[in-house]
Specification:
Helix content is about 0%, strand content about 50%. With about 110 residues, it is mostly beta strands.
């Protein structure tokens, strides 16, 4: 059974940081690219960052320079380090890979 479980979300003030984690089970994690998406209320889900099997990365322009995606194949986990968070970053953040999705973790940026 494939499972993607996100964690690390929460409430942070503007300018704060969070590190999201997504632990995967049920498929060969190291063989697939992984991505983080986000969806704010009333908006479409958008791609935030992706990481390939070799570690190559890509980022959405809206967050480039403030986020870093990484993966630990030994732990079947993908991370999203987010810095200098803004209120407009408030959203549910989801990880995805191999056509599967996690249930998301809420990030709220507010003073």
């Amino acid at each position: 059974q494939v499972q993607l479980v996100e964690s690390g979300g929460g409430l942070v003030p503007p300018g704060g940081s969070l590190r999201l984690s997504c632990t995967v089970s049920g498929f060969m994690f190291g063989r697939y690219a992984m991505s983080w998406y986000r969806q704010a209320p009333g908006k479409e889900r958008e791609l935030v960052a992706s990481i390939g099997t070799s570690g190559s990365t890509s980022y959405a322009d809206s967050m480039k320079g403030r986020i870093t995606i990484s993966r630990d194949n030994a732990k079947n986990t993908v991370y999203l380090q987010m810095n200098s968070l803004k209120p407009e970053d408030t959203a549910a953040y989801y990880c995805s890979g191999f056509g599967y999705w996690g249930r998301g973790t809420q990030v709220t940026v507010s003073s």
